[in-house]
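Lab notebook, page 48
Experiment: co-folding of the full assembly
Goal: obtain a model of how the components sit together before planning crosslinking
Operator: M.T.
Materials (sequences as entered):
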Amino acid sequence: MTQSHITQNRVTISAEGLSVTRNEKKTLDIPSIQVLRDEVLVIIGPNGSGKTTLVLCLALLMKPDAGKIEYKGEAVKDDHQILQIRRQMAVVFQESLLLNTSVWNNVIMGLGFRSVKKEEAKARAQRWLERFGVAHLAHRQAKTLSGGEAKRVSLARAFALEPEVLFLDEPFEGLDSPTRQALTSDFESVLRETKISTVMVTHDRNEALILADRVAVLINGQLRQIGKPNDIFNYPLDEEVAGFVEIGNILNGDIRQQINGMAVVSIGSNQIEAVSPIPAGARVTACLRFEDITLSLPDGFDNTTSARNRLKGVITRVVPLAAQVRVTVDSGFQLTALITRRSYEEMGLVEGKEVSAAFKASVIHLIPHK
Amino acid sequence: MLVHGDRQVLQIVLLSLGVSGAATALSLLVGVPIGVALGLNRFPGRRFFVTLVNTGMGAPPVVVGLVVTLFIWRNGPLGLLHILYTPAAMILAQFIIAMPLISGFTMAGIQQLDPKLRLQIQALGASRMQMVKMLLLEARLPLLAAVMAGFGAVISEVGASMMVGGNIAGQTRVMTTAIVGEVSKGDFSIAIALSVLLMILVFAVNLFLTWVQQRGKKS
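Observation: model returned without errors.
Model output:
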């Protein structure tokens, strides 16, 4: 009883049975999701998976076709109540969506709607414009700003509201890379300081890893997995999640043997060993990160003696990337590894060459099929 | 006559401005809310209303004049008002001409705003009224274009004013009806003088509105 009471107090927004249907297709179908107090919940998922729809529902900007939303334990019902709750939230969209007036008016506007006293509002606007490094733009017309400046103003506008819950829908999308990096690090430190309950949609894995307390994966309008970033990125629950979080090699196979927590999995015409309790006979998907595989020449010096798996194969494809090289090896099944440019050059890897691919049994994540 | 002024001409100009100004003001009062409602909401029958507004935007003043006359004719449904051949009738007719223009421009102005802007304004904590106010402020350029179009249409129309006003000297004679009257009498000089005046007037009003409209443009 007391236990449930404590968890109740930690829930800021709770949604049950959320469903949104557009053109006879369910764009959102979520039995249950919670936003906890002071947490940063990052929502990831492919395009069109319903991330924005979910944010709009939770931010009470869109009425779901079905479902019940509670804010701080109270069921959300009438429009008046919605307005009052909305005035405790803030939303930053992908587009900066500044109004055609001065920067200052943009930041102060929401405080006016929320009847914050004039002096207090001015102080807050000034403080947050400064915090995001755009105080010198206060008297500029919003539409004369660059993309990065506009985004900073739109963030300052949201934080000046000092909301209980902050929603961000891909806020850094569409900015060039240096601008994005500078802004993300500013935003990150602000978020750490303020400890506002935050729901953020992003495409960027690194952003999710850096910012999130919890990550939710949305695919086809369904909540496929929710949990600690580490769990999501290393132990995806199903193949689609694994594919989306770019876990690396996704291989289908069958467990042949199970010996004391070590599973022997046959994949293609070869076998690998993985640390897993899944019994023999099960059909599984094996996830193996590109960077967890080491390549060596069959007759060369080998520094990966501790690796349990060692597969001989022939290189089928070499793709040089900016800092690394992606090498695909056929060893009874296609296996892709990321190696440094240096070792790529040292080993003289070309298509058709024979190599040995090594990886530990503990780096493989097995997902049993239902 | 232009230089020395003339009580009669002055009266005609003032009546023109008064009638068309009042009609435009009334049209704003009614037309803007209609434009906002059509621009913001999706409801069954909306397409019909939009078509109605669009048709109204191109309604010939003479036809409007005829319909209004039929309504306020002694035996008409509004005959009891006894407003035929009064400035009130002219305001009514011009209101019917300008209102769809203003609704149409307002609707277009609201619709061309990013739909997400509504969400953003709501997310800032705006009530529905506050949101509409911000959207109208955001659409101020097309809105002023609406005022210009509405006022321009009614100050320059002649068919309806002639029909419901009657071009009675000293009572319902406005610039356009006076011009028609003078030309039909063969008195071109007064017609030309009034035409020049009318053009100057329309130009001055639009100059002012354009100034207001473009004021915020440079930063």
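Interpretation: DSSP finds eleven helices and 20 strands in chain A.
Next step: discuss with group before ordering constructs.
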